[in-house]
Each structure stands twice: as C-alpha cells, then as structure tokens.
Amino acid sequence: MDEIFGIPAPLLFGQLLLGLINGAFYAMLSLGLAVIFGLLNIINFTHGAQFMMGAFAAWMLLNWVGLNYWVALILVPIIIGATGVLMEWLMIRRLYKLDHLYGLLLTFGIGLIVEGLFRNEFGSSGLPYQIPPQLSGAWDLGFMFLPVYRGWVVAFALVICLATWIVIEKTRLGAYLRAATENASLVQAFGINVPRMVTLTYGAGVGLAALAGVLAAPIYSVNPQMGSNLIIVVFAVVVIGGMGSILGSVITGFGLGVVEGLTKVFWPEASATVIFVIMAIVLLARPAGLFGRA
C-alpha cells in the first residue's frame, strides 16, 4: 500500500493522525465550553487561557516541584479548576441575569490579562516538556509509524469525552444539571444547592481545559499563546456542533480535526479556513448547529 488516491500512504495516514490529535484537543476544549454554556449561558473566552495555564502548571510541577506527568494529569485539573471556581464565585455569577455580551467581554478581558502575565514572566519562545518515558517511542503499523504518546492522547481524550457525556446524560447529577438549565427555582425547591452546583460545573469545565493543556504540553511547546492560537477554531467547532451540546462537541471536534488534516493533503491552501467555511455553511442551513436546539 504505497499510494492512496495518488498520495503516498505514509503522508496520508500521517496527516490523518495529525487531524485526530488536533480533533482530540478540539473535542476536549469544546466539551468544556459546552458544559459551561449549557448550564451557565456564559460564553467563556477565558477557556484558551485556562488551557494554557494547564500546560504551564504541568511544566511548573515537573521543573519546580519534581512531580511527573502522571501526577500532573491528576493535580492540574484540580488546581486550575479551583481557580475557575474562584473566578465564578468572585465575578461571573454577577453577570447571569445580564446579556451574554457582558460575560463574553469579562471572560475575554480576563483571558487577555492572564496571557499577558504569563508572557511577561516566561516570554513567548516556548518551554519544552518531555514526553514521559512510558509513552516514548513509536509503533510500526506497517503502513506508518504511530508515536505512542500521540496514540495515547487520542485514546485518553476519547475516554474523557465519553465519561463526561455519560455523567451529563445518564446520571442523576447530570439530570439535576440539565433540569437547572430549564428551571433553576424548581430544582432548588427539591433541596438542591443550585448556586454551588453551578460554581462546581464551571470549575469542572475549566478543569477539562486544563487537562487538555497537560496532554498538549509534550506535543506543543508550552507558551502563553498556545491557547489563543486554538480557541477561535474551538469556538467554530462549538458553533458547528451546537452551543451547549455535549455530543455535538465531541463528534464535531474529532470530525473537523480529521477534515482539517485531510484538507492539508488534498488542498493545503484551504486547510486554515476549511473549518470556518463549514461553519458558515452549517449556520446557513441549520443556525442552531448540527446537534443544537433552536
């Protein structure tokens, strides 16, 4: 199997793998955005900065404290998620009864401040984060070499996305969350502390972004712009899948990652814009998104 459609097989499958990697990050980040928007109706433009903070937190734990990648996978979402809880408690909850624009402006401003602070402290050149020894090397699949770490990222992201969907759609906690989006007063009448649930939900969405940052640290250089470079595409993914749709975020994230990767093979000039073209087409045909509700 030397060529497929006139394209060398290693090149085609390499770009397909790259698309799956990007799709994994699109899915995890858009999943966090969908969780936050679905319950809080806040368009969280700080999400890219929180993704970046996750990568930097993993780097700090390794270089300043000596805690490895596996510990960072557990600690970083908790630490960065806690900063999200604090942010929701101090600022965001004051905007719930206002127009969406206020939440967007607040989170966009906070994202710029956070990125500026990290750029001032660490510069813009990027810091390396070593792949853990257990996940180094590559598998020979015959038609291509699959880096072990990249295969791990795709598999781990799929598990996290599936687990989040199960929690939201198939558990009692998820039923409370979905009910609170429809009628918070009624849910509170049953003894559920809705404000606390909302705060923890925001923290969980931030934790998902931070977890994606830990996964991204060994692949991309850890730098203050890594979140802002990704967040615009992620918002396009969320819009295409449907604002607030968990399933839509996961399927659209992975799907558009693959489409972007294949476009780099067959039409490289369009690879930077293909997702936005798809977004425009979807919005014209179905304004609520592929999986969204009007």
Automatic annotation (TrEMBL):
Alphabetized, the UniProt keywords read:
Amino-acid transport, Cell membrane, Membrane, Transmembrane, Transmembrane helix, Transport
Which residue ranges traverse the bilayer? Answer: 12-35, 42-62, 68-89, 101-118, 149-168, 200-220, 232-259, 265-285
InterPro entries in the cross-refs: ABC_transp_permease, BCAA_transport_permease
A Pfam family of this chain: BPD_transp_2
Superkingdom of origin:
Bacteria
Membrane topology field? Multi-pass membrane protein
Coiled coil spans: none
Where does the record place it? Cell membrane
Give the principal location in a single coarse category: membrane
Q: Note the PANTHER family from the entry.
A: ABC TRANSPORTER ATP-BINDING PROTEIN, BRANCHED-CHAIN AMINO ACID TRANSPORT SYSTEM PERMEASE PROTEIN LIVH
* Protein family (similarity comment): Belongs to the binding-protein-dependent transport system permease family. LivHM subfamily.
* Name of protein: Branched-chain amino acid ABC transporter permease
